Amino acid sequence: MAQQERAFRTRRAVLEAAAAVFAERGYTAATIAEILNRADVTKGALYFHFDSKAALAQGVLEAQITTDYHMPRELKLQEWVDAGMTLAKRLPQEPMLLAGVRLSADLQGREIFGSAWPAWANLTASFLAEAKDRGEVLPHVVPEVTAQVFLGSWIGVQFVSQAVANWADLEERMSVLFDHMLPAIASPAVLVRLDTSPDRGARVIAEVQQQRQQPVALAGAGA
């Protein structure tokens, strides 16, 4: 068990180091030597988990979508908004996500290691499909089509925010994107109940972190 835990920690350290280097330098300029130096692991340990730089890039991209900050809500559309707003809050602060943005936009490299864009589109489509089944979405909406429209808009928002504000206004821009898109797809009764405030992501993250601390607090009280 201890060996498995060490292997997990080593793999995570390598991924985080690779993400930091990819985020700063891009795929082509990144080197295994720099990733090794940042991860502080041996070459053998790195190649045990990833047999090439392309495999490292694929690992970083696969780590993009997690359920770490997912909170079940009464409305599935609110869960979708929450996913987008927490991403907007986290992206400027997390090299793993920043690396995903840069790698996915590498039109030459993505032929080698892929892109995170299809996974993000699939996630949106799944939220919208379930929301439609619940009657939260207007009948004419095709989840897969709307997901592609949203993906293109989201990519544009990312790049504009990075170019003009170094990500500082990403949450505000994401809020505006939802405010423009939701009236076209959400049923009126649901629309008025959705929270798309710029600070929504920060509040959801705080809620999740507080929930994670509760078992620890309860255990301490029981002792």
Reported by name, the CATH topology of the largest domain is: Tetracycline Repressor, domain 2
Total domains: 2
The poorly predicted ranges are none
Task: List how many beta strands DSSP finds.
Answer: 0
Rounded to the nearest angstrom, the radius of gyration is: 19 Å
Please identify which CATH superfamily of the largest domain we are dealing with.
Tetracycline Repressor, domain 2
H-E order:
HHHHHHHHHHHH
Describe the protein in words:
The protein is an all-alpha fold. It has two domains: 61 residues, Orthogonal Bundle (Arc Repressor Mutant, subunit A), CATH 1.10.10.60; 147 residues, Tetracycline Repressor, domain 2, CATH 1.10.357. It has twelve helices and no strands. α1 crosses α4. The protein is globular and about 55 Å long. The model has no long low-confidence stretch (mean pLDDT 93).
Short description:
By secondary structure, the chain is mostly helical.
Key features?
single chain, 223 residues, mainly alpha, Arc Repressor Mutant, subunit A, 2 domains, 74% helix
SSE map:
Layout: H1 2-29, H2 32-39, H3 43-49, H4 53-62, H5 76-90, H6 95-104, H7 110-113, H8 117-133, H9 143-165, H10 170-185, H11 188-191, H12 200-222
